Amino acid sequence: MPSPLVIFQALADQTRLRILALLRDMELSVGELAQVLGQSQPGVSRHVKILVQAG
């Protein structure tokens, strides 16, 4: 289980919080998230990776 510090660090970013809010309501691919967020797909993938690693 990830430490609380890792979890809070992952949640400290506004983009990652927006990703969680979007995924709470519906299932979206990284490409769809990137389009909704107005960011590049590699950038969103990096954020998703951080969230996954934080558990």
Describe this structure in words.
There is one protein chain. The chain has a single domain, classed as Orthogonal Bundle (Arc Repressor Mutant, subunit A), CATH 1.10.10. The protein has 4 helices and no strands. It has helices at residues 4-11, 14-25, 30-37, 41-54.
Number of structurally distinct domains: 1
Secondary-structure element string = HHHH
Rg calc: 11 Å
CATH architecture: Orthogonal Bundle
Give the overall shape.
globular
CATH class: Mainly Alpha
The CATH topology assignment is Arc Repressor Mutant, subunit A
Let me know the largest β-sheet: none
| Poorly predicted parts | none
Topology at a glance:
Elements: H1 4-11, H2 14-25, H3 30-37, H4 41-54
